[in-house]
Design a protein that fits this description.
It is built from one helix and nine strands, in the order ββββββββαβ. By secondary structure, the chain is mainly β.
Length: 122
């Protein structure tokens, strides 16, 4: 799948978020690495299994938290932590707009367009 392309560009955005896997009872604090309207890359202490389901609570600077269901697509070692790529599941228009607003709220323009190649070889 090295030639797979994303529909939306990834925008670098390092913010605190919370994540809860279906096997966890509580949310854990994590950091985002980048985000797009269809997924995000997270920095995590432990490597999750590909296909794992999780919920991400992303809080925009000036709004209510956005609850995003996602699936782990890949994970790779990055220093002492893991870089984890997730794809959002079942996004409706309201959640997509909330993600765009969160990105803009962190001062990141959404002017980038076009396809961005995946950088992993999975």
């Amino acid at each position: 799948m090295g030639d797979e392309r994303r529909k939306d560009p990834r925008i670098p955005m390092r913010v605190e978020a919370e994540v809860k896997f279906t096997s966890w009872h509580v949310y854990s604090l994590i950091y985002t690495i980048n985000i797009s309207k269809g997924g995000m890359n997270l920095e995590m202490a432990e490597e999750p299994a590909q296909g794992s389901k999780l919920t991400i609570k992303l809080t925009p600077p000036d709004g209510d938290p956005i609850m995003l269901d996602a699936t782990v697509r890949h994970a790779s070692k990055s220093g002492a932590r893991f870089s984890v790529g997730v794809q959002f599941d079942d996004l409706d228009g309201a959640k997509r707009s909330a993600i765009e607003k969160a990105i803009r709220g962190h001062g990141v323009p959404l002017a980038q367009t076009g396809l961005t190649p995946r950088k992993d070889n999975k």
